[in-house]
């Protein structure tokens, strides 16, 4: 960890040693898991969703909603500084990439103006493999 910024800094080799191949591909290389394949797509458990790479709290189950898009969807991050947003011009389109503010891992993308009945009109479309769920029964 960089003590001056609080950021997690690891080499590619260090990340490979702590993440399985799919998590490494998504979190460190910006890949996307197949739709409907992630463990948190349909879960309704209450708790805190954390970054699989560094453990930072990113989202809460109270902000999760069913968007029927194939990935877990949230309408707001847990804290205003939990994630960073970056322009993504890959795949021939302009999207907004979502990264963990603490370790700069790729989480997914955010979309706005789709008409979901949420307080923010945002859909943070996040890869399940980028998250871990700390269910309320395990929160102390």
UniProtKB/TrEMBL annotation:
Pfam families: SelR. GO terms for molecular function: peptide-methionine (R)-S-oxide reductase activity. The lineage of its organism: Bacteria, Bacillati, Actinomycetota, Actinomycetes, Streptosporangiales. Its EC number is 1.8.4.12. It comes from the Bacteria. Residues 12-136 form the MsrB domain. This is peptide-methionine (R)-S-oxide reductase. Keywords: Oxidoreductase. SUPFAM superfamilies: Mss4-like. It catalyses: L-methionyl-[protein] + [thioredoxin]-disulfide + H2O = L-methionyl-(R)-S-oxide-[protein] + [thioredoxin]-dithiol. Signal peptide: none annotated.
């Amino acid at each position: 960890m960089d003590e001056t910024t609080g950021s997690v800094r690891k080499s590619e080799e260090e990340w490979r040693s702590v993440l399985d191949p799919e998590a490494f591909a998504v979190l460190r290389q910006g890949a996307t898991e197949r739709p409907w394949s992630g463990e948190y797509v349909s879960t309704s458990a209450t708790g805190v969703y954390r970054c699989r790479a560094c453990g930072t709290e990113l989202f809460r189950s109270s902000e999760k909603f069913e968007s029927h898009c194939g990935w877990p969807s949230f309408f707001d991050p847990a804290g205003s500084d939990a994630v960073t947003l970056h322009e993504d011009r890959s795949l021939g389109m302009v999207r907004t990439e979502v990264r963990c503010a603490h370790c700069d891992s790729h989480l997914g993308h955010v979309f706005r103006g789709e008409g979901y009945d949420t307080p923010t009109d945002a859909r943070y479309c996040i890869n399940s493999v980028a998250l871990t769920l700390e269910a309320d029964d395990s929160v102390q």
